[in-house]
Amino acid sequence: MQNVERFKMKKFAADAGTLFNRAVQFTEEKLGSAEKTELDAHFENLLQRADKTKLWTERVLRQTEAVLQPNPNIRMEDFFYEKLDKKKRDRNNHQEQLGNAMVDAGNDYGPGTSYGNALVKSGQTQIQIGNTEREFTQATVNNFLQPLKSFLEGDMKTIQKEKKILEVKRLDLDASKNRLRKAKSTASQQQAEADLRVAQAEFDRQAEITKLLLEGVSSAHAHHLRCLNDFIEAQTTYYAQCLKYMQDLQRQLGSSSEGESSYSVGGGNTAPNTLGPGISNNYSTDPMIPSAPPMIQVIAATPNTEKKQARVLYDYDSADSSELSLLADELITVYRLPNLDPDWLMAERGPQKGKVPSTYLEVLE
Fold it and tell me: I need a labelling partner for 129 at 20 to 30 A (CA). Which of 191, 197, 258, 302 fits?
């Protein structure tokens, strides 16, 4: 028992002495009174590359998370759930919240009205976009963020750990060199030389281990490149799907029939429609010329007709392009045509024109 205690005391004293020697060596290096073993240029480049990889991987990771979830409070909440190995709260994203609000508003106004029907359709599209965003977010987490996190928490932590061990071995080596230079007696010189050989061997072995890990950063870069390609592909799919949903919505709302024709400003040619059906890009090819508005069809007033103002009593959805949709309480201009059914009137609202049922109107004298 006494031998064990004595052995522990000797080991403790030796460890304390080693720590003291490291501290002295480190302090003297900072003061410039002790020499420091320098690594070769290739090794230094590997160390710098590893440091840059750690820095930029962490930054790209944080910024990507901010894109997927702009709210920092929610990101912090999700972080704690992840650390506690608990399932994250299932919450609607902003697009889904907007879509639900639009659908509820449209149903409250009445889906049979023009505005209510448009709100419902727009809300359903926003919900579809929200679902697509959810799929994009999940794909990004699985194929891009998770590999980056695994690298930082695995390989990069190992590299940082081995770098610290290498620095310790380097301090031991330089401390042994310093003791050898200061040794005066033959016995102390022999002991210092033996310590130096051991320190040199341990340093060389640790340098080789660290170098192998640092060279493995190239493989990590290649893997991160594949993950980046997966992220860009998911992002491309997400935006393409969103564009398709919006084009479908525009066709449903009848926007494809509006703005189909456009005119050029100052003699310039309008650019061809490359955005697909339902979206008209009415802009000039000259970047200095502002976008041209849709052409407004001007219809001359019918001669010998008495025009009057009328108030709309109820909402009315047009059945075809010859009719005009109405909103309750709006004021429009109406008049009769000789060949028009007596139960119908021609109505004008700004540049829009079409027939409307007279029972939906109160003609103002």
Answer: 258
